[in-house]
Structures are given as C-alpha cells and as structure tokens.
C-alpha cells in the first residue's frame, strides 16, 4: 500500500513539474493533458484604446500573433483551422467572408440568423458571384455556387432553385421569404434527386 502511495506522489509531482517546465517555455507550449497537438489559430481580443470595443485577432498555440487584433472588425470563428469567417467593411467590401490561413478570400458567407450559415448534415451554404453553393467543415466547396435559393441540408438532401424571388413579409421585415415555382432536391455531391 505504501509503495502505491509513494509511486502516485512521485508521478503526480513529476507530471506537474514537466507540465510547468513545458508551459513556461515559449517554444513548446501545450497542455500535456491533450495528447494531440494540432496546428490551428485561436481568436483573442484586446480592448480598444477607448475601452469600449474589443479588437479581435488570431494567435497560434505558441501565443504568437498571426493576425493582428483590429485588422478585421469582427472575427466570427473562434478556432481557425483551415478557414475563418471575418468582416471588415474596407477589406471585405461590407461582406462577411471566409479567409484561408494566408488571408485569401475563399467565398462570401451565406448569412443566416445574423451570422454565417450553420453546418447542417456536414455542409453549409456559401455565396460566390451572387449564387449559392455548399462547402464542408474544412471550407472546401463541394457543390459549386449555382443556385438562387437553397435550403440547408437535412438527411442527405437539400431543396434548391435556379430561379426564385426573395421577398420580405410585411409583418416581419427582418426576414426574407424565398418563392419559386421550380424547386428541386439535390444530394450531397450536387446530383438532382428524382
């Protein structure tokens, strides 16, 4: 029994000492409790000089600032793996856009519920050149933007239309309604379902 207690104390102390040593080095900062260290950026904020607004940017896991706070007015994505949704009126042309790690614009965000569209059934809606398409969780476009109206995917299918009209209901001007006489369904690679 004494041996188990002594071994537990040694492992606990040695493990804590190793964690502290690694934590205090700027080269290899990571939490030993997480056995999978991956390459991603994390959103962070600094208060503006006025103290009213927060300025957002992205850091790597070693605490190096990769995208300076304030470059974009808003950073929607907390964990920046392959793409992030950002907004800045001057840099993005008054649109929320997806950028890659080199800050190239990939596509415009399809805005739903005051932010970028949600991932549904493995895909989310995107916009390019005014048309709607779909991308996966890595930001890879899997169905080319070609639709005027498109619903989220559910159970492997989505309702889309090549021509439709968007109107605002009189009783709810914050939302739009999509009307079309030519809706059809597609699968997750863009094939029409009959």
Low-confidence stretches: 1-37
Please write the string of helix (H) and strand (E) elements.
HEEEEEEHEEEEEEEEEEEEE
Shape: globular
Domain count: 3
Largest sheet: 7 strands, antiparallel
Report the mean per-residue pLDDT as an integer: 79
Structural class: mainly beta
Oligomerization state of this entry?
A: single chain
Measured by DSSP, the beta-strand proportion falls in: 35-45%
* DSSP strand tally: 19
- How do the strands of the widest beta sheet line up side by side? 4-6-7-8-11-12-13
Helix content: 10-25%
Number of helices: 2
Pfam families: WG_beta_rep
Protein name: WG repeat-containing protein
Describe the structure.
- This is WG repeat-containing protein.
- InterPro entries: WG_beta_rep.
- Pfam families: WG_beta_rep (PF14903).
- It comes from Stygiobacter electus.
- The chain has 194 residues and is mainly β.
- The chain has 3 domains: 1-34; 38-106, no CATH class; 110-194, no CATH class.
- It is 13% helix and 38% strand.
- The protein is built from 2 helices and 19 strands.
- It has helices spanning 2-23, 89-92, and strands at residues 41-47, 54-59, 65-67, 74-75, 79-80, 84-87, 96-99, 105-109, 111-112, 115-116, 123-128, 131-136, 141-147, 149-150, 158-161, 165-167, 177-179, 184-186, 192-193.
- The protein has a 7-stranded antiparallel sheet with strand order 4-6-7-8-11-12-13. Strands 3-2-1-5 form a 4-stranded antiparallel sheet, with no helix packed on it.
- Mean pLDDT is 79; it is low at 1-37.
């Amino acid at each position: 029994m004494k041996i188990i207690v002594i071994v537990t104390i040694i492992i606990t102390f040695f493990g804590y000492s190793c964690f502290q040593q690694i934590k205090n080095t700027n080269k290899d900062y990571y939490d030993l409790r997480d056995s999978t260290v991956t390459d991603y950026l994390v959103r962070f904020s600094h208060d503006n000089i006025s103290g009213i607004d927060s300025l957002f940017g992205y850091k790597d896991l070693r605490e190096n600032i990769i995208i300076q706070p304030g470059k974009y007015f808003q950073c929607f994505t907390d964990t920046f793996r392959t793409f992030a949704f950002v907004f800045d009126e001057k840099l993005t042309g008054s649109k929320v856009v997806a950028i890659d790690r080199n800050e190239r614009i990939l596509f415009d965000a399809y805005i739903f519920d005051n932010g970028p569209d949600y991932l549904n059934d493995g895909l989310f809606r995107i916009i390019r050149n005014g048309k709607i398409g779909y991308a996966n969780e890595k930001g890879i476009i899997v169905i080319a933007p070609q639709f005027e109206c498109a619903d989220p995917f559910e159970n492997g299918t989505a309702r889309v239309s090549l021509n439709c009209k968007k109107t605002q209901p009189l009783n709810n001007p914050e939302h739009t309604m999509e009307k079309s006489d030519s809706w059809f369904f597609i699968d997750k690679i863009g094939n029409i379902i009959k």
